[in-house]
Amino acid sequence: MTEIAIVGVGETTPHRAEPRPLLAMVEEAVFAALADAGLDAAQVDGFVSESASMPSACPAEAVMARLGRPVCRTPFIAYGTKFGAGLVAAPQWAAFALRAGLASAVVCWYGHKLSQMSEGPRTIYAEDPLKAELELPQGWFGQPVYFAAIAQRYTHEYGLTEAQLAATAIEAREHAARTPGALRGATPLDFAAYLASPLVASPLRAADCCLVNDGAVAFVMTTRERARDLRHTPVIVAGVGTGTTPVLGDNWFTQNPDYLSTPAAISGPRAFAQAGLRPRDVDFVELYDCFTINNILQFEDLGFAPRGQGAAFALEKGRALTDVLPTNTHGGLLANSFTLAAGHVVEAVRQLRHTRGAAQVPDARVGLVTGLGVPHHSTLILRRDD
């Protein structure tokens, strides 16, 4: 079967509030990815993004117009599953087109301007009548509260210490310090500073919560054969897995009978099976870290730690690039920027190219990326083509 490779990556510098229109930001990211790959816009004949916001906020037709590509000459346009899960699964959609001969180079793009949402991402949930009428008046509302409740349940079931939660936040901040442009890279975090971080929803502090910012990201995919003639060492798509739970939509946060498991328990094994690899083969991970507790759950669901031991693993594995399983090596959503999981894909590609300088995981050969768009989850396994 034809193998797929990621050959170009690009992103805008993240800002809390970006003055330019969203389309201009996406255009910059796409052109940066094409330049990185050594391709021009005329060589792109496929586009893919996530399904929840991009079709209305920044449709493929508008992106193609910015690239100077007529819609009628572009045979493949696809929108994957929701939010971060769709972006991590984008190589699966690209593979369909590349293997069928519908496209020879496919661009995945994503961007958002969260600064323009008056109440931030929480407005999405306020539009749900059930939440607005029954849950919101009781204070049962908003992502920090939802994930804090998950952390409380984890504490009840298995035990969860402040040091274990802090380990994830501190590791993210240390990696961000080695990443130019990371929004929290210039703000050190140790355990004392973590404890001084204000509580948002117990036990989660501000340091446990992801950033809210504007940004755009893109990456380019083609066949492995074509990739070998391009600029960089190809990064091969070894496996892609997707999964969803029976609890649909936003009820996942509040009406979920399996509160301490994410759909990573479904997507992860599928990706590993396709790649012919195991968790022990992975050199680093870029996990969807909207909140620190989510990393802990994914360590367990993906097989890096047994059930109930993900929190201990987060603390005991270490934080250095030479320690066990470096995690979110650019700072992730907690400390670099929030661009769903697209920025995680870009970081994984750079790690596998061995171009991250002081932030490089030594001799990285296999990386894993996850994206969460409840109730959907995707796992992407990438490997260096030597």
Question: How would you characterize this protein structure?
Answer:
The protein is built from 17 helices and eleven strands. The protein is of the alpha/beta class and 386 residues long. The protein has a domain at 4-117 and 212-227: 3-Layer(aba) Sandwich (Peroxisomal Thiolase, Chain A, domain 1). The strands form two sheets. Strands 3-2-4-7-1-8-11-10-9 form a nine-stranded mixed sheet. Strands 5-6 form a two-stranded antiparallel sheet. Helix 1 (22-37) crosses helix 3 (60-67), helix 9 packs across helix 14 (292-301) and helix 14 (292-301) crosses helix 15 (310-316). The longest helix has 16 residues, at 22-37. The two termini are 19 Å apart.
Summarize it.
The chain has 17 helices and eleven strands. It is of the alpha/beta class and 386 residues long. The chain has a domain at 4-117 and 212-227: Peroxisomal Thiolase, Chain A, domain 1, CATH 3.40.47.10.
